[in-house]
């Protein structure tokens, strides 16, 4: 029996057995038929012809997990290649748009408004506040009126601090305190108004003119008098500017006095909720000799700035102390600021033109750019320095890109950056128009 089985089958040597795990290899072993019983056994034939790969297809024709994984990998690779190409194209387009200097504008839309010739404008959150002799109006960037308050103000001055705004009549006696939804409080002063400041909470401080004894008064958002502080200009100096912390708890005043023919500036911080040993409310400050600092403001509750003819000084803390004094040798022509940067326009001494310097509130210089031309107005908003005069306008970004240098086609009263690529709202004597920068 054993001999008979040996005649029917032939066992291949191990070295002759192919590796069946390799793709493209199939093994065929033939069983000897009855008619060949008298013939000697044949060696099994090993066929290396590619019949199919069981790595690719199973006997039932279904795809194996290996093929599915390979196809998923291929799809993933193709997807990321497409994404990378699209991202590169988008980045190239973005850089092309943002890194070049535009010289012209195209008008997208225009809103005609009567009586805007003597109006003052200010950004109030994402909307625009317009103040004129006819009243105060808040409208959105599409020109839609949100609310209006009728009033009689001859020379409107606007100050905004996030959620609160105050409108005063410069040299007059009217103070209007606004929130986002409209009028919150109104004050009539007995003395002429010289300077005004407002906190985020709507607390308002004013300097009232009265010869050598000016008065500093503070009001809550409803217009109620909180305190009055009499100043002796002979002893302390004359208050030239003031600012309130966002929470309304700290007041900063800049006093200028003349001693031995030279001007000195004393910065004084008041916390009217606490009295010091002398029965006063002073919680910090310092005197700067031979210097005039006519501009002061708060960046946050614990950070404030004073700008003068020799540079600017940074203060920190709830009991404010000088952090850094950044000295500038060139003549300061004008300044602008927001919660991120302080911009200073300097007059060049060794060459024609001016220099724009932008600083952060650690005293670090962010950009320095030379430019030609005189601009009577300068502001900083949404990371852009906007300088304009008549039809002329020049715009720099906080990364140092000269975004625009040309004419707006109208006498600019004010200009505001808008959402979208290179879009701006331009205010002129006839109303507002939305423009896009072009080449």
UniProtKB/TrEMBL annotation:
Transmembrane segments: 80-102
Keyword tags: Membrane, Transmembrane, Transmembrane helix
Glycosyltransferase keyword on record: no
Stored InterPro entries: 6-blade_b-propeller_TolB-like, DUF5711
Protease listed as a keyword: no
SUPFAM superfamilies, alphabetized: Tricorn protease domain 2 (SSF69322)
Gene3D superfamilies: TolB, C-terminal domain
The protein's name: WD40 repeat domain-containing protein
């Amino acid at each position: 029996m054993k001999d008979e089985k040996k005649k029917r089958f032939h066992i291949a040597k191990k070295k002759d057995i192919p590796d069946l795990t390799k793709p493209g290899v199939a093994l065929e072993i033939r069983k000897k038929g009855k008619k060949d019983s008298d013939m000697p056994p044949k060696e099994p034939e090993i066929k290396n012809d590619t019949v199919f790969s069981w790595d690719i297809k199973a006997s039932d024709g279904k795809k194996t997990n290996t093929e599915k994984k390979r196809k998923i990998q291929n799809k993933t690779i193709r997807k990321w290649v497409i994404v990378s190409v699209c991202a590169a194209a988008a980045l190239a387009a973005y850089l092309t748009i943002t890194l070049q200097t535009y010289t012209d504008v195209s008008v997208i839309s225009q809103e005609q408004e009567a009586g805007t010739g003597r109006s003052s404008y200010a950004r109030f959150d994402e909307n625009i506040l317009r103040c004129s002799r006819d009243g105060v109006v808040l409208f959105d960037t599409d020109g839609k009126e949100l609310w209006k308050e009728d009033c009689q103000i001859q020379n409107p001055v606007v100050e905004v601090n996030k959620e609160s705004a105050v409108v005063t009549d410069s040299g007059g006696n009217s103070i209007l305190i606004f929130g986002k939804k409209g009028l919150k409080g109104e004050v009539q002063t007995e003395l002429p108004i010289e300077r005004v400041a407002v906190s985020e909470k709507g607390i308002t401080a004013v300097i009232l003119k009265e010869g050598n004894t000016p008065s500093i008064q503070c009001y809550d958002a409803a217009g109620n008098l909180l305190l009055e502080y009499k100043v002796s200009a002979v002893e302390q100096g004359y208050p030239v500017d003031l600012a309130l912390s966002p929470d309304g708890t700290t007041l900063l005043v800049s006093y200028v006095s003349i001693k031995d023919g030279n001007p000195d500036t004393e910065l004084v911080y008041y916390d009217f909720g606490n009295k010091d040993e002398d029965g006063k409310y002073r919680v910090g400050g310092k005197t700067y000799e031979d210097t005039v600092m006519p501009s002061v403001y708060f960046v946050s509750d614990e950070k404030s700035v004073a700008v003068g003819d020799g540079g600017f000084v940074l203060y920190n803390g709830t009991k404010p102390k000088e952090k850094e004094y950044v000295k500038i040798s060139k003549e300061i022509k004008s300044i602008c600021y927001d919660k991120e940067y302080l911009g200073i326009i300097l007059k060049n001494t060794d060459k024609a033109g001016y220099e724009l310097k932008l600083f952060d509130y650690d005293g670090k210089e962010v950009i320095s750019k030379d430019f030609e031309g005189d601009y009577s107005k300068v502001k900083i908003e949404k990371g852009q320095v906007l300088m304009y005069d008549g039809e002329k306008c020049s715009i720099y970004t906080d990364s140092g890109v000269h975004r625009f240098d040309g004419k707006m086609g109208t006498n600019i009263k004010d200009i505001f950056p808008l959402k979208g690529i290179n879009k701006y709202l331009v205010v002129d004597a006839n109303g507002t128009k939305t423009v896009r920068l072009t080449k």
